[in-house]
Design goal:
Protein name: DJ-1/PfpI domain-containing protein
Order of helices and strands: EEHEEEEHHEHEHEEEH
Radius of gyration: 15 Å
Family: Belongs to the peptidase C56 family.
Number of strands: 11
Pfam families: DJ-1_PfpI
Length: 193
């Protein structure tokens, strides 16, 4: 298997599991993962948030770890990467406002490179206009935004995944096993027991 070069877009208060788990899993498999945040440089950190499903009507939020960025946002170009990962949390609320982020996402999608997005990460895809006419899932509170952006929102269990062409989406971190497995298929990565 040839290692792939993957870009991950994050911001402050990215969901802790949704950045840590795919980052570590993709590295373990042998891929290179560059994690960037608009207006931050390599070796700077972003704060993470832990979203949990307890007894309330929606998720709870607690301060998570600091995550060290591995590359500088201003130096990345879609042409240099094989795929894109957009985790959730609160970061997508504000990074989607950055035209450079939207343009970068459109470049990945225009080249039909694999894009894996989870939970609120789909707010970035919707803002970039890449979900129109596509079947996607995400955290259920993002469903109306995705529908308004022209997507067909598929409500599935948090452990499930929806794949439409180059897009792999899941509602939340409980979907990591299937979400990552489908993303790896799109990357052409096989794991033999």
């Amino acid at each position: 298997m040839a290692p792939k070069k993957i870009l991950m877009l994050v911001g402050d208060f990215v969901e802790d599991y949704e950045v840590m788990v795919p980052y570590q899993a993709l590295l373990m498999i042998g891929h290179q993962v560059d994690v960037v945040c608009p207006d931050k440089r390599a070796k700077e950190t972003v704060a993470t948030a832990v979203h949990d499903f307890e007894q309330e009507q929606t998720y709870t939020e607690k301060r998570g770890h600091n995550f060290t960025l591995t590359a500088t946002f201003s130096s990345v170009k879609a042409k240099d990467y094989d795929a894109l990962v957009v985790p959730g949390g609160r970061a997508p609320e504000y990074i989607r406002l950055d035209k450079r982020v939207r343009d970068l996402v459109r470049e990945f999608d225009g080249s039909r490179k694999p894009i894996a997005s989870i939970c609120h990460g789909l707010q970035v895809l919707a803002a970039a206009g890449v979900v129109t006419g596509r079947k996607v899932t995400g955290y259920k509170a993002v469903g109306p935004d995705l529908t308004l952006a022209g997507a067909t929102f598929v409500e599935v269990e948090p452990t499930e995944v929806v794949v439409d062409g180059n897009l792999v989406t899941s509602p939340a971190w409980p979907g990591h096993p299937k979400w990552l497995a489908e993303f790896l298929k799109l990357l052409g990565t096989t794991i033999n027991p």
